[in-house]
Amino acid sequence: MTDFDLLIFDMDGVLVDTTECHRRAYDDTWMLAGIVGPAYEEIAGRKTTEVVAEVTAPLKPTAEQLAEWVKFKQERARLYLTTEKIAFHDSAECIGRLTAAKSRLALGTGASRETTAMVLGRFGWGESFSIIVTGEDVTAGKPAPEIYLAAMERAGVAPNRTLIVEDSHAGLAAAAASRAYTASVRSGVRTEHEQFIGSFPDVRTLLAKLNYAQ
Question: Alpha carbon 76 to chain centroid distance?
């Protein structure tokens, strides 16, 4: 179980702490649309396009309005992501150790391509991930498993040789549905999935438990 061929990381909540950035961006969007939106914890980890369409459905918006609100939310989130301290304390260290150990890493995130590229570029992590699947690369976002299935297919690695590291309920549901091994970090979120290996306070603790990159 400690010898995986592929490690897939979610980005938001696992490598970077973007909760407040996205919470503020959604709050700004709901204000723009003139509605009261859900608590961020209820929509964390999901594709922006799906969340905005679902929450604003009672307004019966046009396709143009939906596109405007999605663009507004993403631009606001990127603004906050470039100005706030968002990297978790152990992310750079763990990515560096795994890269040095030549572990094969992939990223599976519900964020847009532009936001993903911006975050990875900000911290110089882009070259560490040989495979990157974003919310724009799939039809159905988390909790559907499409993001993770796509990452494994691109890598040519079977689910039973893959570990997915998540933090949210939607993300863990997606990981479990992909039939890969799963773990949660930072959130305490758990699942009854038979290949769930545990909940850990951070990525460093998870890697130590699995004897990775010691």
Answer: 18
pLDDT per position as a tens digit, 87-140: 999 999 999 999 999 999 999 999 889 889 999 999 999 999 999 999 999 999
Q: How far is CA 139 from the centre of its chain?
A: 16
Mean pLDDT of 170-189: 96
List C-alpha distances in Å: 159 to 101, 150, 166.
21, 11, 15
Q: Where are the domains of the chain?
A: 6-17+87-209, 19-83
- Tell me which fold the domain 6-17+87-209 belongs to: Rossmann fold (3.40.50)
**Which residue has 């519900």 as its token pair?**
110
Cis peptide before 145, with omega less than 30 degrees from 0?
no
What is the enclosing helix (H) or strand (E) of 165?
Answer: strand 162-166
Rg of the chain over all Cα atoms, to the nearest angstrom: 17
Q: Would the pTM of this model clear 0.90, i.e. be above it?
A: no
Closest CA to 167 of 119, 125, 109: 109
H-only helix segments in the chain = 19-33, 48-55, 63-83, 91-100, 113-123, 146-155, 169-177, 203-209
Q: What is the pLDDT of residues 72-86, one digit of tens each?
A: 999 999 999 988 899
Cβ pair 12, 110 in contact under 8 A: yes
